[in-house]
Structure prediction request, 81 residues.
Amino acid sequence: MTPTAAWIFLIFGFVLPLAHVLISPRSGSWTVPKGAGCPIGARWGWLVIILFLGPVGWLMYMRKRGPRPHLTSNKPADPTS
Prediction:
């Protein structure tokens, strides 16, 4: 592997997914919810998973977040349906 290819893999496989989890508002909170059995918050957990698994961890994160809601029109919803 060339040094350029290694840097590309490092940046796209680890740095960008970590940045995505850091800035995304849908990543969860930094703090632990009351009554949780885990000592770290959801966002910290995703960061650790992505650090260990790289691109696979990011794919897990993307799947867990679910699809984004899309607006199909500006009309109000039909109350009869």
Observations:
- The mean pLDDT is 83.
- The longest helix spans residues 3-23.
- The CA atoms of residues 21 and 62 lie 10 Å apart.
- The chain has three helices and no strands.
